[in-house]
Amino acid sequence: MFIALALILTALTTAAQPEGYPANYARAPRFDALICYDPHAEEAHVQFDRQALSFFHKLSYGEGFRYRVVTSMHGMTADTLRQYSVVVWLNFSCSPAERQAFEQYMREGGGWIGFHASAYNDARTGWPWLNEFLGCGPFLCNNWPPQPALVECDRADHPVTRSLPASFVCPASEFYQWNPSPRLDDSVDVLVSLSPKNYPFGLKDVVRWGDFPIVWTNRDYRMVYLNMGHGDEGFIDATQNLLFVNAFRWVVSRDPQGDPFMK
Predict the structure, then answer these.
(1) Tens digit of each residue's pLDDT (9 = 90 or more) over 163-219
(2) CA distances from 5 to 9, 15, 16, 134, 151 (A)
(3) ω into residue 145 within 30 of 0, thus cis?
(4) Among 11, 30, 65, 240, whose CB has the most other CB atoms within 10 angstroms?
(5) What is the mean pLDDT of residues 27-40?
(6) Peptide bond preceding 180: is omega within 30 degrees of 0, i.e. cis?
(7) Secondary structure in 3-state letters for 155-203
(8) What is the pLDDT of residue 16?
(9) Strands (DSSP E) along the chain, which ranges?
(10) Are 247 and 115 in contact (CB under 8 A)?
């Protein structure tokens, strides 16, 4: 009886699978990425950035994709940026002279993943479009010192988070809170938030309450923002690493030229 049941289940599973070879091996690099970082930023940001460069390099093993690393977007035009399926900002932001080209690239379907300080914006930075792009207000406050945090996945059905547990502990980082919260923007899907169970959050600078999204996407653009990015512990956790890979892959997969992973 048990053998017969096992055979039936095996047959049903096999029948549900598509025909053909299951793997799709690339014959050439699938896409191009531009990775930007500032080697002169504060030390904790540079620590994360250098580890991130190693992380993305390992993802490119076997020439699955090509990437270029730059420390400035000087001289880049929208035409220059169009050759890249995704632009990754590691605690990076372009100068005022470079903003127009980046804005045009994003409005025309460009892809972006930004970490931590890449989204920092206040009255002094003078870039209101960045808040429109992110779907949130300027920086409000942060915890200090960097510490681990319990986080919760807001969207279990989203490609970025559906392979993650409902909650997990992120490695130590400095997390930013925004006002107004991106959750109030109708175009934003909040994917991961700090759990209220963390409050009071911090030892020197203590965040006591408030909505605290840390990963989200604005559906008006092809983008994901991840608030992680401070210090040398950003890549010690497999779950957080999976989150980074999922975000990177999802943004690339929605390229207007077609999903390169399906080719």
Answers:
(1) 999 999 999 999 999 999 999 999 999 999 999 999 999 999 999 999 999 999 999
(2) 6, 15, 17, 52, 41
(3) yes
(4) 240
(5) 97
(6) yes
(7) CCCCCCCCCCCCEEEEEEECCEEECCCHHHCCCEEEEEEECHHHCCECC
(8) 63
(9) 32-37, 66-70, 86-90, 111-115, 139-142, 147-153, 167-173, 176-178, 188-194, 213-218, 222-226
(10) no
Q: What is the pLDDT of residues 69-111, one digit of tens each?
A: 999 999 999 999 999 999 999 999 999 999 999 999 999 999 9
Please give the Cα distance from 198 to 182 (Å, whole number).
20
Query: N- to C-terminal Cα distance for the chain?
Result: 44
- Residue at token pair 């996407």: 217
Region 110-127: mean pLDDT is 94
111-115 and 176-178: which strand pairing?
unpaired
> The tokens 């997990």 sit on which residue?
168
Provide the token pair at 66: 């090509």
Task: Tell me which residue of 202, 196, 91, 198 sits closest to 145, measured CA to CA.
Answer: 202
Does residue 120 contact residue 175 with C-beta atoms inside 8 Å? no
Radius of gyration of the chain (CA): 20
CB contact at 8 A, 131 and 181 = no
Number of residues written out for the chain: 263
Q: How far is CA 149 from the centre of its chain?
A: 18
Q: Which amino acid is at 35?
A: I
Using the 8-state DSSP alphabet, how is residue 134 labeled? H
Which pTM does this prediction carry?
A: 0.93
pLDDT number for residue 9 = 47
- Rounded mean pLDDT, 124-149: 96
Q: Specify whether the backbone of 236 is left (phi greater than 0), alpha (psi in -120 to 50) or beta.
A: alpha
- The span from the CA of 83 to the CA of 93, in Å, is 19
In the structure encoding, which two tokens stand for residue 5, read together? 């049941």
